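Hey team,

Filing this mostly as a record. A colleague (T.K.) asked me to run one chain through the structure pipeline before their review meeting, and I want the input and output archived in the tracker in case anyone asks later how it was produced. No errors, nothing strange. Just documentation.

Input sequence:
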Amino acid sequence: LEEDEKELLKRENLKKEDSNIDEKKDINTIRIDLKDVLKSKIQAFEQLQYKKDLVDIYHDGSKTLEEKLEAINRLNLPSINTKSFRDNELQLELSGYKGFITALIHLDEKPLTAYEILRRLNQNKPNHQYLINMLRAYYEAYKDDVNKKEKFEHIITEYKRLEDKVENYEKELYDYQILLALYADIDDFKSFSELWSELPKVYYYDLY
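Output structure:
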């Protein structure tokens, strides 16, 4: 009987030890999960801050084009390492956003440079904002060119080809403004009229 009691006690002790080990594993797992969540939140904040810094530089009227580019290049691109399958996608998204803001900074003074940046961005990942600003940059670059009719006809054809590659592409007011300006500039009244007829009524007063 004494031996049986000893054996029973031994088993109870082993169960307690196993239970303690499981509890420690659970605590360690919770700590690891919390650490990963915190790291992910910090990195998400850094990404938003990076985008805000880029936009602030773009809107800074006190800086010249060159000063804005220097300020952008001084910004450190946030590193993303959350062990998520989207890490690489997010990193490319940040690089693309930097390129987009860089293009917008060039748009007024060096529209052809802006066009080339946006064209490359759109090649890598078709995007509504890349495409419509690419169209505007091309318009700004060649609006006073003696051969603008041929050039504008070319870019409109290219725009229509690329438009189909952008997922869920829907024209916004900005799209209509640029396309109508292009058609008016080359006296393509047929295309102008067709585009005007599809213009949502909500945009009418904004165009007058």
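Quick notes for T.K.: DSSP finds nine helices and no strands in the chain. The chain has a mean pLDDT of 85.
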